[in-house]
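INFO batch 0412 | record 1 of 1 | parsing
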Amino acid sequence: MWLRKSHQGLKPMRITRQFSGISSATLNQMMRSSGGLTHLRHLFDEFPTSRNLVSWNILIAGYVRHGCIPTALHLFDEMRHRDIVTWNTLFSAFQNKQDYHSTFQYYRLLQSSGFRPNHYTFSIVITSFLVSSVDIILPQIHAQIVSLGYSSNAFVGSALIRGYTKLGDHSALCCVFRDILEKSVPVWNAFILGLMDLGLTLEAHRAFNRMPRRNVVSWTILIDGFLKNDQFQKARYIFDKMDEKNIISWTAMISGYVRLGKYFNALELFPVMIRSGTRPNQHTFSSILAACAKHSELLIGEQLHTSILKYGITDEIVVLTALVGMYAKCGNIDAAHRIFKTLPEKTLPSWNTIIGGFAMHGLARRAVNAFEEMTSGGIRPDQTTFVHVLSACGHGGEVLEGERIFVSMEKTYGIPAEKEHYACMVDLYGRAGLLDKALSFIKGMPLQADVVVWGALLGSCAVHSDSEFSSNAVEAVLKLENDNPAVYSLLSKIYGEKGVWSSVTYLKNKMKENNIKIHKAGSWIG
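INFO prediction complete | emitting tokens
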């Protein structure tokens, strides 16, 4: 074989080892790097007579590994002889790309070609279909699995459990579990996770107690399942019983508290974790910083920032974005912006965080500038981005800018406006005193206005002490929620400032009669 290096002025060099003599282990090692894969392809093309099924499969696997799926498919089409390994390699590629359309197409081709799927084929194919609608496909594949005698296989059974969990089919889930002969710990874990996802916490706990062996994953699945089903006390009880906790179980408990709004519990648990000798990771810091942001704990947040520097987790986007959000929500928008500027990569969530921070602080122009910088840099906004920037325009009185951005949602980015965006526009007009325009905007909405939309108008009427337009908002809100305390509170304010004390007294009596209590102040649109 010859390697030509004419650009270096060298003569061709003879490679004495034949392509067919290279071991499979060496070929596998070569395809792990892009340079090795190029060299392997050169050998493959130079010696077509030395090719065999193993070399074809390894080369295809190499292209799949490096994300070159079209090249892998081209080689697949050129193959005269394939085996089930060839097919499984392609199915793995489709699964990684979440390309269930190609999975379905090639699975049908496999069957028409006379190949018999093995347990690995079924496991990959089922997993690929989980990103799509599996209600029709899964039972058909299950029938094939039974007919080919794979229903007792642990790999296949675990995939089926995940599939029937997505379908919400408790009966089929249990049948699949019973059919598996050797129930390993991963099989039990998949079963318990499925039951938890279906909300069957008691049954999941009973299954956990029946397990012959458990690992830390088993415990963490049970804890996370209770947390996802809003049973944080049971989750903490199980967590405290764990003999060995790892960072995943600690993070599951902390993030679960944050998700359920138990921010103080999360902040209390974090130092316990540190004292246990467990090193926090980026997900732990992200969760605990979110707790600081929600609980307005700036001092603790600053201490966590120091810990992040100490642990050297300074290049993790998720942690830096959480820091931006923490500083913004705790009142230090300048610190938030300084950290944002140091991000090695500015992702959509990080842009949304800083734009939301500017909006929260009423810095409309900075929010709009950030939005323009983001879009000009090639980052495509999403619905959350528009909620933040429209809210900023409302707080800053940027009516024309808000109108322009609202129109660009669908016209430029193809994003249909949701009720939150309409509420932001109503708030924008209302804050600017354009109550007639706000009411016309609501009446022209293609969606049915909800309490948040009408509430934005009512709030604006209270700001401007306008009783004329408030009557429309009050009537609409009470039709949707006739016991909403904010309505009575805002109406009392409007009538009080107008000096219509008889109406104020009437509203107070009405509230007592219906046992309606005034809540703490808040915003209709967040």
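INFO post-check: Residues 1-17, 498-504, 520-526 have pLDDT under 50 and may be disordered.
INFO record closed
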